[in-house]
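Re-run with default settings, no changes from the original entry. Doing this only to confirm the output is reproducible before filing.
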Amino acid sequence: MSTPNKDIEKVEVSIKWDPSPHGEAPNDLDIIAATYPVEEPYGDPAYLVHFDSRAPDGTITLNRDSRTGQGLGFDEVMTLELDRLSESYARVVVGVAIQQRDGRKTFGEIENTGVQILEGYTTLSEDDFSAVGTATAAIVAEFVRDESGVWQFHDTVRGFDGDPESFAATMGGRAFGA
């Protein structure tokens, strides 16, 4: 669909965090994106993109994955090419989940967490997860395609308490959605 409206085309979601103290289980945060079809924008996701996966059409990819938070700058980066995403999708929800395999860990227990969402050189959103310090996962962005085909960005950080699998299954539901 061609439209004269300028919309969001290509977005980069980046997260950072500090490694765990020596001798403790690693801090492992993961970006998760879920796509929702036009027919059921609040139903089950059509597909998920996270570590070890990508969108079937290559429009959503995890460019950098960290299991420890070690290194400089952002530890994980995901690119969403919304302008290339099929018109059969109406919504994309992006979240961040903390791996819970070594015991329950919350954002408040991990030092220097942060998320940044960019479109080109424009910062759409930045957050440090302090408002959801007791959560184990959080929605960080929602992209919704309107009737004319233009993608709209909804800036949001909403916490969730549970493991990454249960978060991924429910992150796009009406309880979280706009």
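Residues 1-5 have pLDDT under 50 and may be disordered. DSSP finds one helix and ten strands in the chain.
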